[in-house]
Amino acid sequence: MNTKEFKTYADKEQFVQGVFSNIAKNYDLMNTVLSFGQDYFWRKFSVKAMNIGPHQRVLDVACGTCVFTKEALRQEPTLKVEALDFNSEMLDQGRVRIEDAGLIDQVNLVQGDAMALPYADNTFDAAMSGFAMRNVPDIKQVLSEMQRVVKPGGKVVVLELAKPSMFGFKQLYNFYFSYILPIIGKLSKDNSSYAWLPESLRRYPHQSEILEIWKSLGYENATYHELTGGIVAVHEGVVPENSIVNNK
Ligand SMILES: C[S@@+](CC[C@H](N)C(=O)[O-])C[C@H]1O[C@@H](n2cnc3c(N)ncnc32)[C@H](O)[C@@H]1O
């Protein structure tokens, strides 16, 4: 499918499913290579921002291969994590990671759609998501769903690629995305899947515009942190007592 032809939400979801089915086996390696190993620090920062406590219940939206889930359990080993993704190949890789780490008793892997989370209101103490928002058909809908399923006072934290503004980083980043990434894509078996990475980022709003979406949903203390010169942004907000997305 030509990515310019997303006429419906279903079109985009179908395309994104195909991308992640194709790259699931190489995802972890590519993640580390493409981020120059920085993704570990970005995730560590993001999990800290959730302020999770012992024995809490946390949701990892679009968990993929469960790297974020594992980092949350590293920081707070008594957590119960619900790890949700709509792609079975990514979930399979995630299951292997969680089983190998001996964490399967604390993690429930679920196949589901971030646009319509299969949970009752106020189920979780906190929710997080990493590198997924570029891939969903409607960011506001997913942030609204995350707000709905998290208890009032709980944190929602989202890590995603951003648009760097710091001089030097911006130029380097543009060069990397315009020239280096396409070469990596051509060398891989599936050029079109790797072409989606820069394309999805090009379509993704600036981090300041994403913040406006958080504010429009009534998240309290909504803010974002730019890391590594703004290569990624971590948005966070607190679920309000009187949420506008349900009758909290
Ligand atoms: C770039 S990967 C990120 C995986 C993981 N969160 C991480 O931090 O490495 C994006 C993930 O989002 C998932 N995804 C995309 N759209 C989704 C949706 N609507 N519902 C559930 N999962 C979705 C994909 O299947 C993929 O596993």
Task: Write a structural description.
The chain is α/β, with parallel strands linked by helices and 248 residues long. It has a single domain, classed as Rossmann fold, CATH 3.40.50. 44% of the residues lie in helices and 20% in strands. Strands 3-2-1-4-5-7-6 form a seven-stranded mixed β-sheet, with helices on both faces. A hairpin with a 4-residue loop joins β6 and β7. The N and C termini lie far apart (41 Å). Bound molecules: S-adenosylmethionine. This is Demethylmenaquinone methyltransferase. Methyltransferase required for the conversion of demethylmenaquinol (DMKH2) to menaquinol (MKH2). Keywords: Menaquinone biosynthesis, Methyltransferase, S-adenosyl-L-methionine, Transferase, Ubiquinone. It catalyses: a 2-demethylmenaquinol + S-adenosyl-L-methionine = a menaquinol + S-adenosyl-L-homocysteine + H(+).
Query: How large is the count of helical segments?
Result: 9
Termini Cα gap: 41 Å
Count of β-strands: 7
Overall pLDDT: 91
The ligands found in this model are: S-adenosylmethionine
Instruction: Give the total of domains.
Output: 1
Biggest sheet strand order reads 3-2-1-4-5-7-6
**What class, by secondary structure content?**
alpha/beta
- Main beta-sheet annotation: 7 strands, mixed
Q: Would you identify the regions where 5 or more consecutive residues have pLDDT less than 50? A: none
The name of the CATH architecture is 3-Layer(aba) Sandwich
CATH superfamily: Vaccinia Virus protein VP39
C-alpha geometry: globular
Beta-strand level of the residues, as a percent range? 15-25%
What is the CATH class?
Answer: Alpha Beta
